[in-house]
């Protein structure tokens, strides 16, 4: 049986599949050529990340397909319910990348409260001629310790982010319409562990009381954070989105940054991927990464292995 990893898969995943007799193809096939490629090569398993879309055209016209796999959490690029109605198995890896995304959130947070994203733009240009000016411009940093992090969406990634926040010494408050309470275990290098219990509160309470916000929600029709929500936040608050593009109103975000209502933002995902708005890209109060939340070697190894294990379990 053949597996097409159209958006790539780790070598650990390839090795596990080939050991069980699967042929793994890592050719990147254009979206409009996928149906023909799958049929011509009798592909049994289609693996994707976020780039490839698996809609009804593929599901209806590729009779050899048995499994659609998403290397990651969200499956908004797959017509999941329809595929399952047609008898296909749809799998993903909800836990594999949680730690990597959480660490990226804190990379944005730490960088933003010390202006690293902007300093790294200007030091190469003016560090030799305006050193004292830059020192003054970036000298008003903020510590994370003792501040309150508002987690919007306290699923696996939200919990992984809360775990880091607690370790840093932050207070964590969370909103999630589907979860009332979570246990956050902290394991230390010497075998000790502590458990923290977080009870979720209303969205309004989180918006009014947090110093910084991190979003961990699926794609949805309405903005989770728009102008009304931003108006409820503290002046100077910071906002990180490493979840999905389109859950934050970017127009309202830029306006709030320019007006000084928000202190900074960190974005790994964008409304208009893969062509983010120029006003977002050029704003010196926004820390930017190109949708790399799960892009660590460790996470990709876990994703590949988990996908392989599920495929083998279903088809062998």
TrEMBL record:
GO molecular function: NAD binding; oxidoreductase activity, acting on the CH-OH group of donors, NAD or NADP as acceptor
Keywords: NAD, Oxidoreductase
InterPro entries assigned to the protein according to its UniProt record, in alphabetical order: D-iso_2-hydroxyacid_DH_PdxB, D-isomer_2_OHA_DH_cat_dom, D-isomer_DH_CS1, D-isomer_DH_NAD-bd, NAD(P)-bd_dom_sf
Protein name according to UniProt: D-2-hydroxyacid dehydrogenase
Family indicated by similarity: Belongs to the D-isomer specific 2-hydroxyacid dehydrogenase family.
Start and end residues of each D-isomer specific 2-hydroxyacid dehydrogenase NAD-binding domain: 112-293
Domain D-isomer specific 2-hydroxyacid dehydrogenase catalytic, chain residue ranges per copy: 5-315
Highest taxon, organism lineage: Bacteria
């Amino acid at each position: 049986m053949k597996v097409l990893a159209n958006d790539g898969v780790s070598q650990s995943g390839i090795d596990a599949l080939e050991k069980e007799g699967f042929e793994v193809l890592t050719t990147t096939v254009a979206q409009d050529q996928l149906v023909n490629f799958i049929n011509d090569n009798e592909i049994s398993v289609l693996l994707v990340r976020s780039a490839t879309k698996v809609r009804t055209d593929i599901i209806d016209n590729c009779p050899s397909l048995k499994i659609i796999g998403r290397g990651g959490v969200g499956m908004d690029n797959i017509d999941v319910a329809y595929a399952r109605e047609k008898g296909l198995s749809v799998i993903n890896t909800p836990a594999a990348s949680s730690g990597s995304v959480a660490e990226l959130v804190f990379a944005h947070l730490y960088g933003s409260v010390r202006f690293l994203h902007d300093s790294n733009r200007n030091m190469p240009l003016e560090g030799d001629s305006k050193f004292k000016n830059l020192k003054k411009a970036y000298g008003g940093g903020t510590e994370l310790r003792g501040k309150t992090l508002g987690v919007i969406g306290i699923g696996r990634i939200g919990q992984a982010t809360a775990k880091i926040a607690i370790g840093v010494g932050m207070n964590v408050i969370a909103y999630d319409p589907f979860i009332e309470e979570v246990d956050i275990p902290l394991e230390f290098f010497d075998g000790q562990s502590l458990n923290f219990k977080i009870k979720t509160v209303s969205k309004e309470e989180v918006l009014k009381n947090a110093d910084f916000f991190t979003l961990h929600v699926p794609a949805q029709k309405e903005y989770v954070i728009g102008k009304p929500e931003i108006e409820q936040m503290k002046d100077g608050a910071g906002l990180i989105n490493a979840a999905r593009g389109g859950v934050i109103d970017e127009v309202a975000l830029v306006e709030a940054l320019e007006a000084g209502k928000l202190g900074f933002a960190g974005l790994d995902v964008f409304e208009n991927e893969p062509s983010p708005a120029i006003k977002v890209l050029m704003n010196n109060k926004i820390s930017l990464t190109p949708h790399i939340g799960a892009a660590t070697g460790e996470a990709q190894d876990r994703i590949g292995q988990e996908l392989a294990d599920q495929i083998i379990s279903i088809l062998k």
